[in-house]
Amino acid sequence: MTLSAKEKLYQTIARHSFAKGFTALECSKLLPLSRSVISHYLNRLCEEGRLRKEPGRPVRFFITVGQAMPEASKDDDAFSQLIGVKGSLAEAVELCRSAVNYPGQGLPILLTGESGVGKSHLASLIHRYAVQQGLVAPEKPLFELNCADYANNPELLSATLFGYSKGAFTGADREKPGLLDEADGSYLFLDEVHRLPASGQEKLFLFLDKGYFYRLGDSKTRRPATIRFIFATTENIDTALLNTFRRRIPMRVVLPNFISRPLAERVAQVEYFLHCEACRLERDIYLDSQLMRQLVMSPIKGNVGELKNQLKVICASAWNQSRTDRLELRASRRARGDSEKIVIPARTAATGFAAAALLPKALWDEIIFREFCHSGNILLLIRKVEQLLTRLYGDIRPEALYCGYLWQAVRRAVDELENNTGVCCSPSQRKAIWLCLCYAMHHAWPEQRIEELTASTDWLSVKAKLLALECAARLKAEGVEERYPLLLPLLGCILHKLAGEDDLIHGIIVAHGRATASSLAGIANQLCGGYYLTAFDMPWSTSTGDIIEMLIAHLTIVKQSAGLIILVDMGSLKEIYQQIKRHLHGELLVINNVSTAMALDIASGIQNRLSMADLIAGVKGAYEAEARYYAGVMPGNKIIISCISGEGISGKLSDILRRYLADGIALLTLDYDDLKHKIQQQDPALHGTRLIITTTPLEAGFIPLLGVEKLIKEKAEVLERDYFANLLAADSLQPVLEEIVKMFTVDGVAERLNFLNPAVVIEEIAAVIQQYEAFYQLRFASYLRVNLFMHIALMIERVMLNSGMNHRDDAPLSAAQQAFVTLHETFFQALNRKYRLALPLTEVLMIYEIMEPWIAGEAASTLS
Question: Within a domain: residue 524?
Fold first, then answer.
C-alpha cells in the first residue's frame, strides 16, 4: 500500500536516531517537503499520540515511548479511498473501525440501507481493514452468503450455513462442512439476512452467544469456531429480525442513499466509475455536462449499484457508435456537440484529471482562510492555495486545477448571479469561489469557531452579505447543498469589492411566480450596472403572512439605519408594515403592482443615492400603484457606556470619547445591572439612545450595542457605518480607535514585558506603524495594530537579550519579502538606534507575515 506523506515522515523519523529529539527544520532535510508542511504533519502525529513535543525555541519532538510502528494510519487504511470517508460516510466508517478493533473478536456489525448503497463493498473493506490491523490472517478471505438466494428453500440455506451430517436429510450421503466451518478465523458476510428463517436466526443467536454451533442432523456435537460477522439488510430490523438475534448485534451502521449524499460525493462516484470504464476500454471519455447533471441530480432507485450499471450501458452504447479514439457521452442524441465537456482520461498521468481531486486533500491549512476573512485579499488566497498544492504535489497546471463538473457548476452559478444582480465577477473571483467552495465542502468546523469566523467578517457591507446569499442560492440551484456554514462568510469576502459601499436605501422586490421577482430585479440591476434590488420569488400559494416572515428574516441582515423600499405584486401594505415595523429603524416605503419600469426607476434612484422623499416624489402619479410611506424611529442624542467590572474601563472610554463627540451628543455611564434592568423594563430613560458600549454581551433590543472586544477588533469603516455615524466629529473615529487600542495594549503589554517601559515603547512602535501605513497608503485595522504592538514590543526585549529568532535567516526570499526587508531597515532606524538592535532576518519576516494579508495587494502597486 502506498504510504501517505505523513506516514513516510513518521517512518523516516523512526529509522533515524534522535536521542535529543528533533525539530521541524531537521526533518525538512530528510524529506522533500517544506518546513510548514512538516510542522503540520508533526502536530498531527502528536494528536495521534505517536509523537510528543516539548515547548521551547525551537519546539522539539520525540517519538512516544513504546509506540509501535503501525503499517497504516486512518489516512491510508482500507477505508481511505472510499468516497465519502470524510463526509457522509465518516460516522459509518468510524463505527466499523471501532467494531473491528474491539478487544476479543470484535463486534458483529449490521449494515442497513436501501438496495445498492454499497453494503457489500463496505463489508469487503471491513475485512481488508481487519487484515491490515493484524486481526485476520492475510490468507483468510472474506466469506459471503446472500440469504435471498435460498429464500425458497430454508433447509438448504441452513445446510449451507451450518453444514450437515450424513443422513441429515434425503440425499445427505456424506458429512459436509458449512460456511461457519470455512469462515473460522475470518469474517462471514451474510447479505439480506432478513431472509434467514427464524430457526436459522435462533441458531446464529446461539453461536453468537456461546461460540459454538451444531450441524444439521447432529444435535450432540458442539463445533466451536472463531468468526467475525457482518450482516446486511434493506428491511426494518425491528420487524424483520428476531429480538433475541437483533440484540446480539450491537453495532448498527446505516448507509445513506445516493441522492442524499453531498453533490461532491455523487460527482466523484460518477467520475470513478467512468474512469474505470475508460481504463478498461483504453479510451478517454468526454462526458456531456448536461448528462452529468442528470446523473447526479436525479434519484436512482438502485443507488450506487444501479448507477454503475447505467454507466456501463451508456459506455457500451458510445463504444458501439464510436469512430474516434475517444468516447462521447451525451445526454441525448440531439444534445449539442459543443456543450461543456468533462474529460475522464484513461490514463490519469496524461492529463490533469487528478489535480482537481487533489484539491480537497490539500486544503488543510485553515489559517489561509481565517486570514482571508480578515483581509479579503483574493489574489493572496489563490496564490497561497496554489503554492500549497505545488509544495505537496509538484507543479500543477492551472487548467488542470480549475476543471471538472463542480468547477463548471460554479461558473454557471456565477453567470446566473451576474444576470440577477448586475455585477461582473472577475476570473480571480470565480477561482476564489471555487476554492472556498471546495474548502467548505470538505471541512467541518465546530459551531463556536464558525461563529468567530462569521464575526470576523462584520466589516463586510450589507450588500456583500446579500450578494453572498444570492451566490449561495445560485450554487444551490446547481445542486450544492446548504449544509456548509463556512461558505457564506467566505463568499462575502470574495464579493465585497463588487458590492461596493452600502446604499442609503435598500430595495426589495417580492412577487409571486417561479421567477417573476428575479426577472424584474435582474433587468433593473443589469441596466443600472449594479446590485440595487434583491428579489424574492414566492410560490403562488404564498400568503401575506408568509411574505412578512420572509421579510423579517431578511431584515436581520439589512443595516438598521438604512431606508427600505419593498415592491410587491399584491398584498395588504398596512398589514406588511404593522408586522415588520418593530424590526425597522429607518424609513419604509411599500408599493404594490410592481412593474419593470417601476423597478428600473427605483433602482436608478437608489444608484443615484436619492433621498426617500425624492423617490416618493418620482413614484407619485407615475404608476397605477398604491404607495405607503412610514417614518422610521426618531433619532436620539446620547451614548451610554457600561462596564460589568466597575467604573475603571467605563471612565477611560468616556474620557477618550468625550473629546471627540459631535455637537448635541451626550455621553452617560451607567452601572451594568442598572442598564440591564432599564432595558428589560423598556425604561423611557433610554429613549433617544443612539449607542450602548459595554464590556459584556447584552441584549439591547432595538438599540445598537457595541462590545469593547468588537470595538477593538472591528474595521474602522464598519464601526463608522454601523455604530458611530453622526455621533463623532468629522474624521474623529480613527484618533478615537488609536487611543483605545493604545489604552488596552499598554495594559496587556505591561503584563508581559520584563524591563521596557510599556507606555514609552508603545508610542515608539506607533510611529513605526504609521510609516508603514503611509507607505502602503492604508489604515491597519485595530486588531492588527494590537497584534503589531504586542509582537514588536516583545521582539525588542527578545533581541536585546540575544534570544531573537534566526531559524529562517538563510531562507531564500521572494521579491515581496525582499522589498519589505529593505523598507524595514528604513522604518526601524529610530528603534534600532535607541535600543541598539540588530534584528535577525527571521524576526523581520515574522513581522512581514503578520502584515502580509493586508499589504500583499498594495505592495505591488506601491513599488511599481
Answer: no
Q: Are residues 491 and 386 in the same domain?
A: yes
Kindly indicate the confidence band of residue 864, based on its pLDDT and cuts at 50, 70 and 90. very low
The pLDDT value given to residue 607:
92
pLDDT tens digits for range 619-646: 877 887 777 776 654 456 889 988 765 5
Same structural domain, 303 and 376: no
Strand partners, 324: none
Is 733 in a helix, a strand, or coil?
A: helix
Cis status of the peptide bond prior to 427, with omega within 30 of 0: no
471-521 per-position pLDDT tens digit: 999 999 888 877 788 899 999 999 999 988 888 888 999 888 888 999 999
Looking at the structure of the chain, the number of domains it has is 6
Residues of the domain holding 669 = 638-730
Residue pair 258/307 in contact (Cβ under 8 Å)? The answer is yes
Q: How far apart are CA 838 and CA 845, in angstroms?
A: 14
pLDDT band at 747 (very low <50, low <70, confident <90, very high): confident
pLDDT for 757 beyond 80: yes
- Looking at 256, 286, 304, which one is the last position of a domain? 256
* Residue 689 dihedral angles phi and psi, to the nearest 5°: -80, 125
Type of residue at 277: E
Between CA 658 and CA 739 the distance in angstroms is 12
Whether 158 and 18 share a structural domain: no
Of 464, 480, 502, which residue is a domain's last?
Answer: 502
Instruction: Tell me, letter by letter, the H, E, C secondary structure of 64-90.
Output: CCCCCCCCCCHHHCCCCCCCCCCCCCH
For residues 90 and 194, membership in a common domain is answered with yes
In this structure, are 454 and 346 located in the same domain? no
Nearest to residue 141, comparing CAs of 184, 99, 85, 111?
A: 184
Measured on CA atoms in the order 569, 574, 579, 585, is the torsion positive or negative?
positive
Pairing of strands 505-512, 563-568: parallel
Which band of pLDDT confidence, cut at 50, 70 and 90, is reported for residue 696?
confident
| Residues 100 and 197 occupy one common structural domain | yes
